[in-house]
Design brief:
Chain lengths: ~110, ~110
């Protein structure tokens, strides 16, 4: 039972490079979320989706884009990475209840 | 924005102690609240939900005070395995749907 998976688990980027983080869930959840977690800042919502084909901005959306072409996948893109985007990125999904299931996280370093 | 505020701690307690964390929230319309637990370098996991005045699950009790807009988490008979960061969570609704907003967390360290 995979739950929520994230790829990659670790990545190092140079400033200006682009990358896409993939989140996949096998629980048929409608809602999916991308958070970033930084020391002393807690979890901050980047973007989220309430269903296939929909996306919405969270608290800190600047510098990121997302897509939800398939219900089970939620992609987070960084078009031009900056050192300020060094963080741990968590994806989560939920059904109609408020219990969110998180992926194991992606540790991204931008140099 | 400071929708959810928590005392970051750390709280350092001995095994067997009782410890309580508070969390204040700004949205008076919120109807449900949650406590998540996060171990070091791991993903958060749901610990308890609070939909009315409170909820109890074994050694853990969550209470809600709507008038003062705070929720609390009480841990009795602390175990070493309770050492973690506890996150207070409140739903955030806008026209695009509902997301969960997390507090910065309170760190608990239980020692023998």
């Amino acid at each position: 039972n995979a739950g929520v998976t994230q790829t990659p688990k670790f990545r190092v980027l140079k400033t200006g490079q682009s990358m896409t983080l993939l989140c996949a869930q096998d629980m048929n959840h409608e809602y999916m979320y991308w958070y970033r977690q930084d020391p002393g800042m807690g979890l901050r919502l980047i973007h989220y989706s309430v269903g296939e084909g929909t996306t919405a901005k969270g608290e800190v959306p600047d510098g990121y884009n997302v897509s939800r072409l398939k219900k089970q996948n939620f992609l987070l893109g960084l078009e031009s990475a900056a050192p300020s985007q060094t963080s741990v990125y968590f994806c989560a999904s939920r059904s109609s209840s408020y219990e969110q299931y998180f992926g194991p996280g992606t540790r991204l370093t931008v140099t | 924005r400071k929708e959810v505020e928590q005392d970051p701690g750390p709280f350092n307690v001995p095994e067997g102690a009782t410890v309580a964390f508070n969390c204040t929230y700004s949205n008076s319309a919120s109807q449900s609240f949650f406590w998540y637990r996060q171990d070091c370098r791991k993903e958060p996991k749901l610990l308890m939900s609070v939909y009315s005045s409170g909820n109890e699950d074994g050694r853990f009790t969550a209470q809600l005070n709507r008038a003062s807009q705070y929720i609390s988490l009480l841990i009795r008979d602390s175990k070493l395995s309770d050492s973690a960061t506890y996150l207070c969570v409140v739903p955030w609704a806008n026209q695009a749907g509902t997301a969960l907003i997390f507090g910065k967390g309170t760190t608990l360290s239980v020692s023998s």
